[in-house]
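Suppose you are handed only these lines of text.
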Amino acid sequence: MSDCVFCKIVAGQIPSTKVHEDELTLAFMDIGEVNPGHVLVAVRPHVENIYGLNDVLAAAVFRTTARVARAVKKAYSPEGVTLYQANGAAAGQTVFHFHLHLVPRYDRDGLRLTWPTKNPPREQLEANAAKLRAALE
Ligand code: 5GP
Ligand code: ZN
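From them, the structure of the protein bound to guanosine-5'-monophosphate can be written out as follows.
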């Protein structure tokens, strides 16, 4: 897609600092890194979000992610690693080309994702799950 920044990175039209590339994926450093070793793993074709991933791309992107995660662990020995992946502006997505963040984590490193737990009754969980089972393709 001509106005997509990650398509331009994939095509080599704008510079990026690459960690790994293969036929279907590209892993490169996030220009706005939270901590050293913050890597983005993107799919090569222009797929806007998770809904557009076929099984082959989905498997490839997670295979690369797991591989780079092992490298992050070996290279930086972080206290933890967070995978972050946003779909849609409401979810925090700013670049609309599927990618996943691998963020090395440390105690009190300032990264916060608030998680407002609701603890619904079991019946509500059952109803939610039934709705999802009916929607599975
Ligand atoms: P999102 O919020 O969509 O998950 O995150 C997009 C990420 O892409 C941001 O963390 C941002 O720093 C990164 N980013 C945006 N433009 C560029 C770029 O041109 N090069 C690189 N390496 N990263 C970018
Ligand atoms: Zn793109």
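What can we learn from it? Helices lie at 5-10, 55-76, 122-135. The CA atoms of residues 8 and 113 lie 30 Å apart.
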